[in-house]
Specification:
The protein is α/β, with parallel strands linked by helices. It has a single domain, classed as Rossmann fold. The protein is about 65% helix and about 10% strand. The protein has a 4-stranded parallel beta sheet with strand order 3-2-1-4. Helix 1 crosses helix 2 and helix 5 packs across helix 6. It starts with a strand and ends with a helix.
Length: about 120
């Protein structure tokens, strides 16, 4: 499974997006490995620019698997936040939650956000 972060979805959704990232999203969708979580959905809906993006999101909601955010994911996000802070790394809470979700579910994380690269260095 591949948890696709908002940063990658944006490249896929928008004509001016980075095609390399958009193609990676296409590949995950075509292979059936693509997934998202409630936090990614919220971020995408919050940033949907027009009816076309909204229609695409509605379609994804009916076809794309969603990784759950049980208490263990939240606990992992808290642990990552503490460990990151000890190393002088501060990232948005949303990124911590998405990162923890991927880690909890044993999924790869497809993104174009340097915060996730920083989090990979945190035990």
């Amino acid at each position: 499974m591949v948890l696709i972060d908002t940063s990658a979805w944006i490249h896929w959704l928008r004509p001016d997006g980075d095609r390399k990232v958009g193609d990676a999203v296409d590949l995950a969708l075509q292979s059936g490995d693509a997934a998202w979580c409630a936090m990614v959905r919220l971020e995408l809906w919050n940033g949907a620019r027009d009816r076309a993006e909204q229609q695409t999101l509605r379609k994804l909601e009916t076809t794309l698997p969603s990784m759950t955010l049980p208490d263990a994911v939240w606990d992992e996000a808290h642990r990552c936040a503490r460990n990151a802070r000890r190393r002088g790394i501060t990232v948005p809470a949303t990124d911590l939650l998405i990162f923890a979700c991927a880690r909890h579910h044993g999924a790869a994380l497809l993104h174009s956000d340097a915060n996730f690269d920083l989090l990979k260095t945190v035990p």
